[in-house]
Amino acid sequence: MEDAAKAAIEAVLKVGAKFADVRIENTTTTVIELSDGVTKRSLASRLKGAGIRAFIDGAWAFGQATDLTPKGMRETGESVARLALATRGRVAKRFEIDGPSFQDKVRLKVKKPFQDVTFEEKIAFAKMIDDQARDFDDRIHNTRTIYGDLCTELYIANSLGTSVHLENSLPIVISITTAKDGTNRQRGYKSMGTRGGFEDLETERSQHIGEESAKLAVDLLSSVAAAGGTYNVVLDPVLNGVMIHEAFGHASEADNWPAHTTILEDKVGKMVGPEHLNLTDDPTLPGMRGSFEYDWEGTKTRKRNLVKDGILTELMHSLETAVLLDMEPNGSARAQSFTHSPLPRMSNTFMEPGDWDVDELISDTNGGLLLCGYNYGYTVPSKGQFMFQANYGYMIENGELTKLVRDVSMAGQILEVLSKIDAIGKDFSMESGTCAKSGQSVPEMAGGPHARIREIPVGGA
Amino acid sequence: MLGLEKFLWEVHKLDQRLLEIGEMVVRRAEELGASQAEAYVATSRSFTIDVENNAIKSASEKRDAGCGVRSVVKTGRVGFAYVTTLQDEDLFEAAAKSVKLAKVSVPDPDFVTLPSYSGIYPTVKGLFDPAIQKLSSEEAAELIMRTVDATNEAVDARQTAVEAQLSAAAGIKAIVNSLGISGSVETAAIFINSSPTIKDDNDQTSSYEFQVSRNLKSIDPEWVGSTAGRSAVNNLGGRTIEGGDMPIILTPLAVSTVIGGGFGGAINAEEIQYGRSYIADALGELIASESLSIMDDSHIVGGIGSRSFDAEGVPTKRMQILHGGVLKNILHNSYTANKDQVENTGNASRPSYSGLPSISPSNLVIAPGKGTLDDLVSEIKKGILLRYTGDRPNMTTGDLSAMVMEGHYIEDGAIEHSVKNTLVGINMRDLLQRVHRIGADIRVTSTVVTPSIVVESAKVTSG
Prior knowledge:
The structure holds 2 protein chains of 2 kinds.
Chain A: H1 2-15, E1 19-35, E2 38-56, E3 59-65, H2 70-87, E4 103-105, H3 119-134, E5 140-158, E6 163-181, E7 184-193, H4 204-207, H5 209-220, E8 224-225, E9 229-235, H6 237-249, H7 256-259, E10 279-281, E11 304-308, E12 311-312, H8 319-325, E13 333-334, E14 343-344, E15 348-351, H9 358-363, E16 368-380, E17 385-397, E18 400-413, H10 414-419, E19 421-424, E20 429-437, E21 440-448, E22 451-459
Parallel strand pairs in A: 4-6, 8-18, 9-16, 15-21
Antiparallel strand pairs in A: 1-2, 1-5, 2-3, 5-6, 6-7, 9-22, 10-11, 10-15, 11-12, 13-14, 16-17, 17-18, 18-22, 19-22, 20-21
Helix pairs in contact in A: 1-2, 3-5
Chain B: H1 2-31, E1 36-52, E2 55-73, E3 77-83, H2 88-104, H3 130-133, H4 137-155, E4 159-177, E5 182-200, E6 203-206, E7 209-213, H5 221-235, E8 244-250, H6 252-261, H7 269-273, E9 294-297, E10 318-323, E11 326-327, H8 334-340, E12 348-349, E13 358-359, E14 364-366, H9 373-378, E15 382-388, E16 399-403, E17 406-411, E18 414-418, E19 422-427, H10 428-433, E20 435-438, E21 443-444, E22 448-450, E23 453-462
Parallel strand pairs in B: 8-15, 14-22
Antiparallel strand pairs in B: 1-2, 1-4, 2-3, 4-5, 5-6, 5-7, 8-23, 9-10, 9-14, 10-11, 12-13, 15-17, 16-19, 17-18, 19-23, 20-23, 21-22
Helix pairs in contact in B: 1-2, 4-5
């Protein structure tokens, strides 16, 4: 593998490019989907190949190779370098790629590696989850269980001298249940993802994910649609994480700075929220789905204090953005696979806990909403506009939780919403997810404590 | 002329080669115990240029090849495996894994058989333009910089950072199965977009415009650029409004997400069979306004969703979905058609060799009415012009809560200002019933062909 990467890097430099890097990946995945107790999808895959980049004077070129012999790598390297040379005259700004180099071989220790677990065992696990959801209540109309595992061996090398071997192992289980009562249909969604082996699916939480999703679907049968309006909203940890991810995280990915596409462009070192607000992105947390020791450019990762005491202090960087912004690289460049170029991305993103007791937070909120779980969210950092949708929630009336509501959407402006966060709980939890940007999906986690936002527009259907 | 002949000969050769690989993989799966097998083999080349802050940032060339194998062992056990190379050892590993997975899966009593077909496929023209395949990196750079220039010109003196992208892709896919399916097709498409971020003294905003086509000549970088630039300028000065129930005009881009995604996904037979769609047991019933007619047209010349056979190799046809508000047909693949014992509509779709067949519309075509967008605006006393939203409904309940990503407030027949922090809420069943006016301003977004439509009333929240 080292030889193949070396051949490509040498070829790129020989053609005349100034920087080269290579990612060689070998990934196997298994996906098993059951619906109503029978297999609907059982899928095994192998992705293998190399992604090669060349850089000169501000121009990048990217190509991929599945022929991993030194000859094949050399040829792809040459063609990528020629492409970079061809576009160098049209760049906005000339600069060089520089940064620290790393040499390491990281082994990920798991108790039960997925390649040692048979398809039968994986299917049996999915069937157990699917059955428990269906058996939960007579009103369960459809069950759907998705089991997935992904094992990656990744080698990263570049012309600065980096040579890093990495491993990853990511299980996920998703349960989606539809409950029906007359013409009323509701859907419950629960998922659990970690970084580890099959042993992570033997935990208490994983073993009951089907029941959780079924319970939610059944409960939602008696929910009402929330009336649209402006509310004081308490977010649960899951939804708080989604808000931080959508409303703030994406806008603090540093590739937005050279592109001039973030509302935060002039805010580095300045107040972006109240003093009690601390936002963090940390890829070094063990066992978390968004964790990695080195990023896809081979830079060692560390914790990022995005917002410290209300001040925007750090961004998510690739080698390039660290050079362009004259900040320290912090290992945030991620790619979906060898077929993509790495981009600055989040990992495990969260709001640091505050000092409010959760019960007090709710009883202090009159005429508001507690919103929980999420369906989806998205943002346009260049406009500062974001929206996300809670899976369900409760009306808060006279300081007490009352009616169950569903599918509640919130929209806002990044800079306005942070200043409206007036109370932060002392609890904390994280939820796994997958984040899409520029056509690339990467595993991540988001979370935090319960937190309250004052006066935010909420749309019911 | 000589060049073209050589080119055609090469294509023919690759075409045959993929079918041979498919046959080999199917045979291997059968030898390992599959009673039926299917191979989906594809190769493609794509070229992309990215522009950031008005200048070229990167270029990439990707060559992709791979194979997906679906194996069936008796009594409804199905397994699938894919690999991202076309090397024999990897292909054989995929065939073996698919059979192994099939053998241990929980049998699906509703799975009857893979599809069979041995006739001739309908002809669908305009799917492959050799000019797209042959587009050089210099020509591509030229096209995207023209887009950027047109954007900047439309924005005029304000501070502007344009992001833009050009992507051109060409490829061949082949589908082979044990029951006589054997089809291959070559396609090409080009996509350009422009997204300017603009700033004035106290506001920052952006917009987005794109064009996707299977014909290089129809790409119009000046239109994409100038439209994106003008829209960004129009988006400045976003304000909140007083909410309430009011009419909403959905422009083709908004129709594309709300109806294309939100209705196109609801007429998927698989979702309906499982009771996961807000449209269930409604075939033959009046579910929409009588002015709404929608067709699934897989035969549009050069259509992005056009295909002569679907992702299982089943021949496609043109089909009415909604006519005068009545639900005439839903979309099937072989599995759902066999389960309901109805005719397969040929709507199997898959992302590439890397996925199992699901179901999707080909091109959804909404029949036009009368009038320009300006006419529609002039008829509104107080309402919202929704140009773009990223939101889709909850497919089970039909509840839609859509953020106005780009839109304007209308008062007394004229556009007043752009809106921010504004959500439109409505259930899809109501939305379909409340379409009371359809324009004639047809646009092809990608797989949706539609004019603007007016929904009589929806709940608007803003703050």
